[in-house]
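Protocol step 4 of 6: record predicted structures for both targets in the notebook before any analysis. Target 1:
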Amino acid sequence: MDVAFRDMQRLSAVYYDVEFSAQARSVLFKHNQLSEIPGIKIWAIRKTGAGWQAPEDWTEVTDRAFCRNQTEISELVLIISNSDWQGGAKDLRPRSPALTVEDHDCTALVGNVDTEVNYHGRVFSVAVSGLRFTLNDPDPQDRYTSYILTGSPAVTWHASGTDEFGCTISGEMHLDPADGTVTTGLVNGSLVLDREEGDYNGLITGSDPGARMTATCGGAPSELVFPSNPILKTGFPNPKMGDGPVIEGEYVDPSENYGGRWTWHFEPAP
């Protein structure tokens, strides 16, 4: 739904009343730039099971998300007004927000990661499917939407390649599945969405201090400590979110010192 695609005469207001059906599971108010237009204000009034709530000033709010299975909202009224009595009509189209309603929940994201890390000829790779992030957000209306990794299969890192000394590298590091805690699962991670900037950052880590890989340099093989590399690293600057519910991307670090490539794909859990 487009909130406003027409001129607003001075000292006027327009009302939009949206009532959500049972199939509407997530609501996203996004791309609002009306604060850049002098005299324009936007107010929002939400209806919940307790009735109509106090009006909220959304003029400066760029994005706001609601998960309806976590935050009750049955109806939303948006009021846009033009208080500029000298400036005449205001064209809202270049700055107008949009209201998107989707039929999926936003309390969990599932997906996969494919990673390859390099260290001067040594190659460390991992591919993981069945990752699950669960909403961990005390205030889902806040600017930031935070998810914590609560599920994964067992993870196996593979070491291969020939390093700068001519040694052939081999070995594996096995990690326990994630369970959403730091103390019992060796795989841990988080994903944070910044609704105001329209971007996000994610990190999944895991290590086993006792894991070893083998280096064969022509003589007797020797054991080396298996490095602790991030399973997921979205990099900097933060990647941008798309218009849909899918979060996917690729980060490439060209450094020879634990640089590499991380690709990921996450979508709402069914």
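Target 2:
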Amino acid sequence: MMKSIAFVCALLLSLAITTATAEREVVVYWGQGPDGETDLRDYCQDSTIDILVIAFLHDFPYYPGSNLPGLNIAGHCNKAFSKSDPHFLDCSKNVGPDITYCQQQGKKVMLSIGGGHGNIAFTDDAQATTAADTVWNMFLGGSYAQRPFGSAVLDGIDLDIETGTSIGYVAFINQLRVHFLAQTAKTYLISGAPQCPYADEWLGPGKGTALQSAWFDYVWVQFYNNNCGLDKYPSKFNFATWANWAKTISINPNAKVLIGAPASAASAGSGYVPASTLKTISDAMAIQFPSIYGGIMLWEAGTAQMNNNFAGQLAAFLHDGSAPSTPVVTPVPAAVQTTTTTGSKSSTTTTGRVSSSTTTTGKSTPAPTIPVPAPVISVPTPSIGITPAGSSCPTIGYMKCSTSETYQICDHNHWSTPLSCQTGLRCNPSGNFIYCTY
């Protein structure tokens, strides 16, 4: 009898560990990558990625001068529904079917609102509520005459808010959930992508903010481009602070917190660490916060693929179903660093607040699949200075400093109006892209 009890206890413990690790997911943003980023369906061919996040609905609730939002998924879709609204895109013939294909492979596909250069702001809760109805009808389970992804129904909405104010996001999420809970055919998700400094400037938590008072299923914290990033582990890495949010503040008692990580040294200004270091950190978080830690988010698909299938390297330990080994928590050895002028999250059409780019060298866990060589990309460097908005530019994703504190983005082959760096930051050019730095 004692043997049977011991066996059952061991079996239950094994099942609990397997379940906990199985729930750790690989989340990858897609849509703003470099020239090497391929079609959405290409990232759904195996079990590596669990959730794909399409980036971005970047002008919301309206594109300036229009009554429709602006969608930008770089070179993956450039066809507009009409000439009068060139930023409201019809991606129903290519991206729409890919969404459906990925979902058939068991993936979740979400749409991210925002990005570092997004024009995102609500005037009040009433406008935010109406905007939620619009998103439901255009991208989720509702109906609209012109749906950017056609009949494909996305699995949820991600908030990567890096501009504007915190006004309206509680009302926006609450109204989305009114739609979600009014039907039972499909489960929809809400995620947030705050910067790691706590509290996030736009999402909170804090009085009236979304992370204080609204429902989130996932929060994948951007542990890069900040002084609390992965490269500061363990001394300044503040996952524990965000885990405490999930435990003591989140209105969803089952909210998961994920580590947001750059997919390569070219994906962010700072914070990139090799897969071996990420495994050490992941194992530590799984042991310390087993019911809260939810996996790893990568920015982004193209650079992950070019970095020896970085997502695959992470899936090898996140999906293996085994209990993490207890790590020895010691400062991560300093890697050899060389200054580069590669892109960052801001280097495509999206980005967070970035600092000088560095490339970290050193050994990492070998990729579990065949490495994909990085293509050689050669593109001209945009000039510095103000260019009239609407003037032609070489390709989507290029950025340039227009003044010491503003920058412009090449959006659908036309330069945008100048956008401002955050207060106190200055625009610094780096090749085809810019950094807003102190």
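Step 5 preliminary note on target 2. The radius of gyration is 21 Å. The longest strand covers residues 51-60.
Proceed to step 6 after PI sign-off.
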